[in-house]
Design goal:
The complex is a heterodimer of chains A (193) and B (122).
Chain A: H1 3-6, H2 13-16, H3 18-42, H4 45-61, H5 72-90, H6 107-111, H7 125-137, H8 140-151, H9 156-163, H10 167-192
Helix pairs in contact in A: 3-4, 3-5, 3-8, 4-5, 5-9, 7-10, 8-10, 9-10
Chain B: H1 3-14, H2 23-93, H3 115-121
The chains are: A mainly alpha (193), B mainly alpha (122).
């Protein structure tokens, strides 16, 4: 049910509060992306649904405090990420660094595989599940940077703002995250040969 | 990792399937947002009510001050009138002997003569 539909159902704040109506379009635009991000960070569908909802409610409550110093998208992801950190703390899961598993360094033969060519990326279901699995296995810290940069197209500076990290840390985490995903794909391609 | 691998990983991550939270989730979110909006409206109404009450109280206080100032001005007028009459009385009688009226006592005169005697001497 969308907020616009809610306005037809009697005592509805949408009829009184235009902020409620406008916020509906913000939810429309970001709900899938925010939920996808939170789900991958927490590795828990139910908790991700709850955290995403809480993130939107908090954003709505504090919309007046949004000062435009960052994009609305970055602001929403920052709220969601902070909630993820809180949940992880409650579950006593550490947002810890994991040792890099760079995989085999036999890049020569594997890199010549056509699937490494981003212009002609053919993602088979199997390769997709390998990538998905590799992303899921990343530590939340690496995962957050990888998803914000490669999936949400955020700039380094924006990610640094969202995650409250120095720019150098963002770059090194992105490198480490990509390295781990590439390592998983390398292993998969080697097995396939 | 070379540039090609970097771009490939980026492309793969971008192409991962999108997640959708579902309609039930959205309905529940709308309910929570509606509740939040109602709470916000109630808070706004309460603030407006408090402001109005404060304004009425301030008006009443001002009215009382004006009223009291009126009483004070009557009292002030009385005080001024009393002061003016007192000054007029002093003007007529004078506070004591003026320098013209005063003459030094003759030599050898008793400095302790009464005021009546001095007045008679005048």
């Amino acid at each position: 049910m969308r907020p616009a539909e809610l306005s037809r159902s009697g005592s509805d704040p949408a009829a009184v509060d235009p902020a409620f109506r406008d916020f509906g379009s913000i939810v429309d635009a970001y709900q899938n992306r925010l939920y996808g991000f939170v789900r991958r960070i927490l590795n828990d569908d139910e908790e991700a649904l709850d955290v995403t909802q809480e993130a939107f409610v908090r954003a709505f409550r504090n919309l007046g405090r949004f000062d435009g110093r960052c994009s609305l998208k970055a602001w929403l992801f920052k709220i969601a990420h902070n909630l993820c950190v809180d949940r992880a703390r409650r579950r006593k899961v550490r947002f810890a660094e994991e040792p890099l598993e760079c995989g085999e360094e036999e890049q020569g033969g594997l890199a010549s595989d056509d699937r490494w060519n981003p212009e002609s990326v053919v993602l088979s279901d199997e390769l997709l599940s390998v990538v998905n699995g590799a992303v899921e296995r990343l530590s939340p810290k690496l995962k957050a940077v990888l998803l914000l940069h490669d999936r949400e197209d955020m700039a380094y500076e924006e990610i640094a703002h969202v995650l409250e990290l120095p720019l150098g840390t963002v770059k090194s985490r992105l490198f480490a995250a990509r390295e781990q995903v590439a390592g998983a794909v390398r292993a998969y391609l080697q097995e396939e040969r | 990792m070379n540039h090609r691998e970097n771009r490939a990983v980026r492309e793969w991550v971008r192409r991962l399937p999108e997640d959708e939270p579902g309609l039930a989730w959205r309905a529940s979110l709308n309910e929570r947002l509606a509740k939040e909006a109602r709470g916000r409206n109630r808070r706004a109404a309460r603030t407006a009510g408090a402001s109005a009450a404060l304004a009425v109280a301030a008006s009443l206080a001002l009215w009382f001050v004006v009223q009291r100032t009126g009483t004070d001005s009557r009292l002030e007028a009385e005080l001024v009138a009393w002061h003016q009459s007192a000054v007029a009385a002093t003007d007529l009688s004078g506070p004591g002997l003026s320098p013209i009226e005063w003459r030094p006592s003759p030599a050898g005169a008793d400095p302790w003569r009464s005021v009546e005697e001095e007045l008679e001497a005048l």
